[in-house]
Amino acid sequence: MKRLKRYQYERYAVLCQLAYPRVFKHTRYGFDPKGQQIVYNQHGKIMIRIVWSQRDEEVIVIIKGSHSISDWLWNFAIHKVRHSTLPVPYPIHAGFCHLLTQPSQPKGGGTTSNVSVFEQVMRYLAPRIKEGKRITVTGHSSGGAIGCVLADIIDIRYPKTIKRVVTFGQPAIGGWKMHRRYRLHHKTYRICCDLDIVTFLPMLPGYYWHVGRLLWLHNGKIYHNTPAVIRLGRTILSWLFRPFSYHLMSRYIRNKDFFDKR
């Protein structure tokens, strides 16, 4: 597996943080004036940004984490389901499945749409893929979990198109069947900052499994694939004092110095 470089980490972390505000000046970060397309959720709120430049082969799909009360509530739908429209050979977290398959409404809502979120993403990516571009998927929190499934769908439909998957503070989205059949373990970097409690969710050992390679940023070092029991022991003690402080994107950006400069 190729190493994730510092400049790559910093770029994706910054984009994940900037995806949350309503206004995102993508041209400030080297993307074309017309190099952004937005996917809205069923309430007409921004959920996913797709950005690119003609000078670069990479298209970046940026997925926001839970940012509304309804999004947070769907986090608690922890049973696994298969959805007829999702072309993946495994069941996933029911709440995150809903977020992927919900209708993508135009900005502001009010108009009925028969196109789901993931289908809208595929429609936007198709022309870019035909141009020969490769896709990087990145996301924070539930956006990272959703990103793993979305990247797998892209790879199934367009083999060898995915460049990498980089997630920040993501919970698990599938079980052993997903862990076994996920196609992108070698391209997926699952980044956990210090003692982020969200990375242990849902807390159902054996029922949920993570995918990809864990990079644990802790005490000035990068640890690779550290067993959950070790991280969890430290997390419980820290959580008693600062429950969610390690889950903020600002913590991930601060830790960019862990990565290689080149």
What is the subunit arrangement here?
Answer: single chain
Structurally, the number of domains stands at: 1
| CATH homologous superfamily classification | Alpha/Beta hydrolase fold, catalytic domain
CATH architecture: 3-Layer(aba) Sandwich
The count of DSSP E runs of length 2 or more, i.e. the number of strands, is: 10
Global outline: globular
CATH topology: Rossmann fold
Spatial ordering of strands, largest sheet: 1-2-3-6-7-8-9-10
Based on CA atoms alone, the radius of gyration comes out at: 17 Å
What top-tier CATH class fits best? Answer: Alpha Beta
Assess the beta-strand content as a share of residues. 15-25%
Q: What structural class results from the helix and strand content?
A: alpha/beta
Task: Give the uncertain stretches in residue-range form.
Answer: none
**N- to C-terminal distance:** 16 Å
Number of helices: 8
Q: Roughly what is the average pLDDT, rounded to an integer?
A: 89
For the largest beta-sheet, the strand count, sense and barrel status come to: 8 strands, mixed
Helix content: 25-40%
What is the H/E order?
HEEEHEEHHEHEHEEEHH
Pfam families: Lipase_3 (PF01764)
GO biological process, one term: lipid metabolic process
Protein name: Lipase (Class 3)
Organism: Vibrio palustris
